[in-house]
Amino acid sequence: MKQTRSLFRRFLMGHFVFIFFPPIVLFIFFSFIEFSGINEENLNTLNLFYVILLLFGFVIVTFVVISWLFFLRLRKRLTRLQEVMSFSANSNSFPKPVSVQTDLMDEIDQLGSSFNWMIQQLEDSRKREYEEELLRHRLIANLSHDLRTPLTILKGHVTRLNKESMSLKGRDSLTEMNHTITRVGDLMDDLLSYTLLTSGKHPFQPTSTDIGRLVRASVAAWYPIFEELEIQFDVDLPTEATFYWEADPKWMTRILDNLFQNILRHAAEGKYANIVVDVEKEQIIVADRGPGMDHSSYERGAGIGLSASNYMLKKMKLKADFISTENGTRVAIGRV
Predict the structure, then answer these.
(1) Chain-centroid distance, C-alpha 175
(2) What is the pTM of this model?
């Protein structure tokens, strides 16, 4: 067991010695003079007043010097510990352990030892978290790969059965099976994409991006699909005015793709999609007239894609505000 010593006890003992030791010496000195038979006239020649005054001054100066040295050393040790903690807060990393005296530990050494123990615990926790996250990403990637083969086989059998003669109910069942298989494949793609995204496999390359131009390009790519499904495409995209965000163009395109895809998957029955670029407020607005995000269709499928979009928006210092009712959903993307 490590031995400890009290810093403040040493401080008090030092002051006690320097305050009470000189009077004791003076008392012994006068006792010696009296024992030696020196008369009062000789004692006056020693100039007793100046001796006492000198002794009192010595005690005061000694007290001030010891106090100043003590608190200076104490402040230096605490400042060193504070600098280590401040460096950690500014650099967003764990600080290095501080040096402590292990043979005789005072209160400051005990504080430093506790601080070192906390750093070690945090480092161990971060290491375990990283290993668990790596294992989870690997498991999801392997699971997505392993499930793709049986889904492809099922889809092939459904396609073959569609060529056979069967009742109307049977054909409706095959259509629903084909839709479900496709949906599961899309969910696996979203899950794998989110896993790769959060593990840093998709590089983040921010640049000054013309948002008006990017949204127009995305709308042009999706317009034929919406037109084929007879969904009214209401757009307000200024051609002259625009604004710029420090964002990754590929990530922004994926976010818009996810929003448009959710309209097709969950709000196609509303037959309406509204896309607006608000230059004054610097916002991208996407709205539909679907059943809303509380509908079971959204609960089953939109979560992974929205989680990936929110992750990308957070990295680009953007946010998405959702307003969803039974009459539709409105998403406004803007700065944090």
Answers:
(1) 45
(2) 0.56
